[in-house]
Design goal:
The protein is of the alpha+beta class. Helices cover 40% and strands 19% of the residues. The protein has a single domain, classed as Nucleotidyltransferase, domain 5. A three-stranded antiparallel β-sheet has the order 1-2-3. Strand 2 and strand 3 form a beta hairpin.
C-alpha cells in the first residue's frame, strides 16, 4: 500500500548552502495498492492501482497481465507470501491458465523480486517528497511515472553475484526450517 500524504506546511526550497526541507508531520488522505509486473527482458511495467489488496483485486491484475502478454508466451510470476496470492480462488485461476507459473520468495527476501527494485526507484524519484492531497492525485502521479517509464523501458540487469544470492536463499531456508 502507498499512502497519499500531504504536508501540514509547505517545505522550504533548496538554496545555496542548505538542503530543501519538509515538515515531519503530515495529513493522511488514504491509501492505494499498486500491483505491478516487471517484464525483465524489456523493462516494461504492467500496473494497476486498486483500492484494496485482496484476492479479488489480485485476480483482476492477473487478468490484466493475461490480456497484455502475447498469447503463447510463458509467464513466470515472482510473488511474496501475502495471503491473497495463495487464496484458493487464485489457485483455481492459476489452474485455468497453464502458461502462468508462480514462484514464491522466501519470507524476508523481497529483494529477490526484481519489481521491488523498481518500487524503490518509484518511491525515490516520484513518491518520497511528493505531496498528494487525495488518492486520485497519488494514483495520477504513479500512472504518469509509469507511463513515462514505459516510453523508454530498459531491461532489468541483475548485478548481484548469483552464488551469493543462492547462498543467502539457502541460509534463509535453513533459518525457516530450524524454527519448525
Amino acid at each position: 500500500q502507498i499512502q497519499a500524504l500531504d504536508r501540514t506546511q509547505p517545505g522550504l526550497p533548496m538554496k545555496q548552502g542548505r538542503a530543501g526541507t519538509m515538515t515531519h508531520d503530515y495529513k493522511r488522505h488514504g491509501t492505494t495498492t499498486l500491483f505491478a509486473a516487471l517484464d525483465v527482458l524489456e523493462g516494461k511495467v504492467i500496473h494497476r492501482c486498486m483500492q484494496r489488496h485482496r484476492h479479488q483485486e489480485f485476480i483482476r491484475f492477473l487478468n490484466a497481465i493475461e490480456a497484455d502478454v502475447p498469447a503463447g508466451k510463458v509467464v513466470h510470476v515472482i510473488l511474496d507470501n501475502y495471503g491473497a496470492h495463495k487464496h484458493p480462488k487464485v489457485m483455481q485461476w492459476l489452474g485455468r491458465h497453464p502458461r502462468f507459473t508462480f514462484h514464491f520468495t522466501p519470507t524476508s527476501c523481497s529483494w529477490i523480486n526484481a519489481v521491488e527494485s523498481f518500487f524503490a526507484t518509484l518511491t525515490k524519484r516520484r513518491l518520497k517528497r511528493g505531496v498528494f492531497r487525495s488518492i486520485t492525485d497519488l494514483q495520477a502521479a504513479i500512472n504518469r511515472y509509469l507511463a513515462e517509464h514505459n516510453e523508454n523501458p530498459k531491461p532489468f540487469v541483475w548485478k548481484a553475484d548469483p552464488s551469493r544470492v543462492l547462498a543467502a536463499i539457502e541460509r534463509g531456508k535453513q533459518a525457516l526450517e530450524s524454527i519448525h
